[in-house]
Amino acid sequence: MIRIEEICSIIKDDIDNNRLSLSEKSELAKELNGLISEGSIVLAQANPLSGDVKGNAMKAFEWMKWAQRLKVEAVIFPEMFLVGYPIGDFIDRYPVIVEENIEWLNALAQKSRNVKVVIGFVEKNPSKTGKNYYNSVAVLANGKVERIVRKNLLPNYAEFNDYRHFEPADIDSENRIIELGFSQKAGIVVCEDGWNDEDFFEKNLYLTDPVKTVVDEQSPDYLINCSSSITRAKKEQLKHNMLSFVAKKYKTPIVYVNQVGSGECLSFEGASRVYDENGELIARAKSYEEQFFIVNPMKKQGVVYPLPDGLEKTLTEQKAFSLDHEPDLERTYLTITQSIREYFRKCGFKRAVLGLSGGLDSTVCAVLLADALGAENVLGVSMPSRITSLESKNDAKKLAMNLGIKFREIPIGDMFEVVRSKFDRLFSEIESDWNVRYKESFTNDNIQARSRGMILWGIANEFQSCLPIATSDKSELYMGYATINGDMSGGYAPIADVCKTKLFALAKWMNKNRTKKNAIPQSVIEKRPGAELAINPKTNKPLLAEEALMPYEFLDEVIWRVENLQQSMGDMIDEEFLYEKREVVSKEQKREWLKKFFKRMSTSHYKWSIMPPSPIVDARSINKAEYRHPIIASKINYEKTSFEQKLSELADDPVFVS
Amino acid sequence: MIRIEEICSIIKDDIDNNRLSLSEKSELAKELNGLISEGSIVLAQANPLSGDVKGNAMKAFEWMKWAQRLKVEAVIFPEMFLVGYPIGDFIDRYPVIVEENIEWLNALAQKSRNVKVVIGFVEKNPSKTGKNYYNSVAVLANGKVERIVRKNLLPNYAEFNDYRHFEPADIDSENRIIELGFSQKAGIVVCEDGWNDEDFFEKNLYLTDPVKTVVDEQSPDYLINCSSSITRAKKEQLKHNMLSFVAKKYKTPIVYVNQVGSGECLSFEGASRVYDENGELIARAKSYEEQFFIVNPMKKQGVVYPLPDGLEKTLTEQKAFSLDHEPDLERTYLTITQSIREYFRKCGFKRAVLGLSGGLDSTVCAVLLADALGAENVLGVSMPSRITSLESKNDAKKLAMNLGIKFREIPIGDMFEVVRSKFDRLFSEIESDWNVRYKESFTNDNIQARSRGMILWGIANEFQSCLPIATSDKSELYMGYATINGDMSGGYAPIADVCKTKLFALAKWMNKNRTKKNAIPQSVIEKRPGAELAINPKTNKPLLAEEALMPYEFLDEVIWRVENLQQSMGDMIDEEFLYEKREVVSKEQKREWLKKFFKRMSTSHYKWSIMPPSPIVDARSINKAEYRHPIIASKINYEKTSFEQKLSELADDPVFVS
Question: Which residues, including other chains, have CB under 8 Å from residue A347's CB and lie 6 or more apart?
Fold first, then answer.
């Protein structure tokens, strides 16, 4: 007899491709019925498309039909499935989306039978008071909408905007209980509803706890949590520990259904799961894949698929900066490749073009693109200038060959010359007007970077469904070390949330773990990064990034402390960095680096605001989808002063003191 | 005797420039004391800088000292003054800002005397539960923080993010009452606290109404509303009508203190004011200027400065699309020029460079920049290609002369040729790889636009404190009719929230109302817009924008209906457009235009996401500061389908129907 997980795969394949005839479906359903036990349910770990209400409803219908054929008790979809999450302000600007999602919900309800369908949608708030909508989950059964459960806790931080669009609903615990077959009662909560346990969290964002109320008042056999919860560094640890803790605390199993797939910046890893009443994991769906996942919570039946390598080992939260990126590399790789693939598909693109400099950033991007889109859909363009070393050119070519991507070389020396010759005359004219010229400017560096941008965008304009790629990384974006309309420019920015030290680790990891080993030339991993846009007059060689900035190991720790500990400059001066354990760093040097960091960071906010979309990977990011910052930040006081100093600045008025 | 408004100007001048000696200050205070009556207060219509806590505190101190010298009852600052609004997520990322604002508040408190200081700041929430902060107003007096009032209603829509950062506080009406001299009791509300009257608004966002509670429970002599409330189309009408209605309804005067100045996208017009118990306006500060504004609410003393021309006439809300932009033009002009000036100042820039095409967009931008920054700080660059007409070149030059801005001409033909020659070979190579070339591409158009972008950014790189300007307008941004790294690219985008028909009206208005009349050549206003990037094969002349898109009068009404009425495509098909009253438009033609609009708009979201900052002007905008949209929007269902059609799409499964 074939195993249940194989059958799930066959069903998923049929849903996607309609491979089976109706009689084959019927046969399979019969065969499977022996495996399906009383109380089995389907976790519909599915991938919606924002705003495509019809497409999402049609997809749900295919899953529903399979659940009906198999005669499971219920099929459970993620939060907001019908409108597609993230949906943002679309529902306010285009209320037709909400109207359509309600009609499609009613149409699906008409097609429902004795298998309950639990599905997230956007509900209109009929009241004269409050926001226009509720974030709700409907239970469809026997041709009707049997129940609507409204979300109580509305997150509104980082990437979440729930309270912006939705009215918080009362908990109403009785309404949250659905009867499944064989006298099982399940209590429904919606995503954040399950994230406010007072014993688990040090600080609670909300005054209510729907889980506690539902369990205390209704004693359900188990809880169902319909979620759309993203992956990011440290999140799996938190999620596992929290769900396990709550299940155990209340002696109540938890069925957690999560979305899979990516919006442009948010990535959902799936990994839907079931914890038993002791907090033990008894089933977990695959990560980064749609899955028709059959479990039986009360009989503790289910398959536990592995998490990406490394995550299991680190189910405690990382409290200090570490250069050991290993535990997060497979997840990082899967998150970015899924994001690229989905962004292209969901926007209707197929091919990518990027500049290959022979440096680390473009190299890592090329590998990720090849794996996400297929090597044949990636074009790497080497665009050497006079400064580009032969080694870099060779590395670019070698990488392209190893990956099997398309490759072209287009020297940009003549573009540089024609622009430069214009500038020579123009600048001297302007100087006579303004007389405020920089002694050392980045103009020459930037002409090169922008010439490359012009070539890549030209290719994208000329060839259908092709997007250029921005290759900037997180460390350099923090420092504003990226060229507007140059390497910062593109349709997507795969590594904008990956720091340099982690990129090195990722490159090594990919060389070791991809089917084709060592695609990245060793020299790329070994050489010290530099943009090859300018010559360092001190060394007479291309300027290295660390010469212009500071050591990456130090920089990445500053970023980590800003993002994870919200430390001020003063805090950082007082604490020892990992880098300081290895290298002697004078107080003056450290202070200079920190000052440089805060100064450059402050003036980089504008650049962040015009960055193309990019996947959130880290525990926190500068991604627009989660960080709402003004740009006029040139005078933020990052450093504390004493109260006495403040008082002394407020000079009294002697006339009035007397 | 000099009038009180003149003295206010002298005081403001002293605050800014410290012109007066201490004895002069003392003299002036004595002279003014005759004019100051019992119950006089100062509305501190001031302009903070986001994150510059020290700077804001030092500024507040100067105003405080003048209030003390004059012996008024109180000096009242806007909401969030100490941290500077907008502050966004800075307070979460850099909690040092909040710590500093609390220390500065305490330092200011120590310097307070018997003149009460009412000032907005960010308060820490000491509780284990809830968000980290409160949006609060402190009352400082006699060396202490006498009272803290916390905001109850936290807006979280459009440009507002209050609930993202702040815990909503109880109303606590007793705590909101401060005693001013002469037994006057004033009740404090914070901005949105005053915006939820159940009789005024058709729909109420919130369940509570602090104004009602404070008036019912405490019967204050008047209300003080500390605000940071932006200007946008139709907002003044709403604000005036609402404040007047509420004052009259409760027979309670309202003192409304508003911030002035601009963040990068949000513009505050000031126009702080006082309504008496009959809802009559008895004082209103200047618009778009900092002002030390002395009023006496109970004695009904104060000056009513005029609003920008046009606004007084239209104190009822516009319910239908209109091509009569006149009533909003002065406000539009003042909002944009203030925004430019402030963005440059607050980011540390002084000069602007922009491409002058001789077309409407760049022309209007040049005028606005000259007026905001001073003509000597603006450089217009004409960058003709082969397609550029002689007329356009002449118009650009003439405009520059009329404005007195710097002007240079740099033909880009050679840049185009060198790029184009590269592309010829490269594209044929790539075509053999992919075989998916567009038959008609925009590559040539875009090379021209991007060459211009490269020149402008080069100038900005070479000359200190100089920013390039993006000249895209709102109509064209909706249609994605703008070039990435070309006209869309820059450090600031002055007219990104102004539609084309309004831009024409604004150009005419500026020609009539600026000191120097008719700076804009008549031909610029008369000719039909076109980017002059491509030749229309049908006419053999440069392609006109309306040929590529649709008539601007129609397009602007579609945008208006989307933004103001949230209409779907179906709604618009059924309703008559203004354009249809003048021109015969077939149903097919209208449907084609609407389809084109929704299709092009959907694929333009990416472009909006990488637009530089720009001022919000219209009633709604696509500005990132107010519109949170996903990009993966290629399949939004903008058109309704019938329920029956939906049901028919959900094909039953005959095996199971039986």
Answer: A264, B603, B606, B631, B632, B634
Angle at A637 between CA A635 and CA A643, to 5 degrees: 140
Residues 6+ apart with CB under 8 A from A269: A230, A231, A236, A258, A260, A287, A288, A331, A334, A335
- d(Cα B509, Cα B326) in Å, to the nearest integer? 8
Q: Which of B53, B259, B341, B434 is the mutation pick for testing A, counting most A CBs within 10 A? A: B434
For chain B of 658 residues, list the mean pLDDT of each consecutive stretch of 10: 87 95 91 88 98 97 96 97 97 97 98 96 96 98 97 97 97 96 90 97 96 98 98 94 98 98 97 98 98 96 94 71 94 98 97 97 98 98 95 97 98 97 94 91 95 98 97 98 97 98 98 97 94 89 93 98 96 96 96 97 96 98 96 89 96 62
Classify burial at A205, counting beta carbons within 10 Å of its beta carbon; exposed 0-12, middle 13-18, buried 19 or more.
middle
Find how far residue B567's CA is from the centre of its chain: 24
Residue B440 confidence (pLDDT): 86
A607-616: b (≥16 Cβ within 10 Å) or e: bbbbbbbbbb
A625-657 pLDDT, tens digit per residue, is: 999 999 998 889 899 999 999 999 998 876 554
Please state the rounded mean pLDDT for residues A592-598: 97
Out of A263, A457, A489, closest to residue B446 by CB: A457
Q: Which of B130, B461, B610 sits opposite A443 (nearest CB)?
A: B461
- Tell me the nearest-neighbour CA distance from A263 into chain B, angstroms: 7
CA distances in angstroms from A655 to A81, A391, A486, B27, B413, listed in the order given: 69, 73, 59, 11, 69
Contact A497, A615 (CB under 8 A): yes
Triad B560, B565, B570: Cα angle to 5°? 95
pTM score, two decimals? 0.97
Q: Given this model, what pLDDT does residue A47 score?
A: 98
Check residue B316 and give its pLDDT: 61
Phi, psi of A253 (to 5 degrees): -60, 150
Residue of chain A whose alpha carbon sits nearest to that of B607: A612
Task: Dump pLDDT digits (tens) for A479-530.
Answer: 999 999 999 999 999 999 999 999 999 999 999 999 999 999 999 999 999 9
- Contact status, residue B438 vs residue A464, Cβ threshold 8 Å: yes
> A96, A144, A140: which is closest to A122 by C-alpha?
A96
- Measured between CB atoms, which of B103, B113, B632 is closest to A643? B103
Q: Output b/e per residue, B73-112; b: 16+ Cβ within 10 A.
A: bbbbbbbbbbbbbbbbbbbbbbbbbbbbbbbbbbbbbebb
- The two structure tokens encoding residue B394: 């002449």
CA angle B13/B15/B18 to nearest 5° reads 85
Given a cut of 80, whether residue A318 has pLDDT beyond it is no
The pLDDT of residue A266 is above 50: yes
Residues A282 and A280: their CA atoms lie apart, in Å, by 6
Alpha helices in B160-234 (DSSP H): 162-165, 210-218
- A312 vs A51, residue with greater confidence: A51
Q: Whole-angstrom Cα distance, residue A456 to residue A490?
A: 8
Which two tokens mark B421? 């020659």
Cα angle, residue A18 at apex, residues A13 and A21 outer, rounded to 5°: 115
**How far apart are alpha carbons A591 and A569 in whole angstroms?**
9
Residue A203: HSE in the Cβ half-sphere, 13 Å Cα cutoff = 8
C-alpha gyration radius of chain B: 28
Smallest CA–CA distance from B59 into chain A, residue: A650
SS3 B192: helix
Give CA–CA dist A302/A222, Å, rounded: 15
Q: What is the pLDDT of residue B653?
A: 76
For residue B171, what are its two tokens?
């109303």
Residues of chain A contacting residue B108, judged by C-beta atoms under 8 Å apart: 650
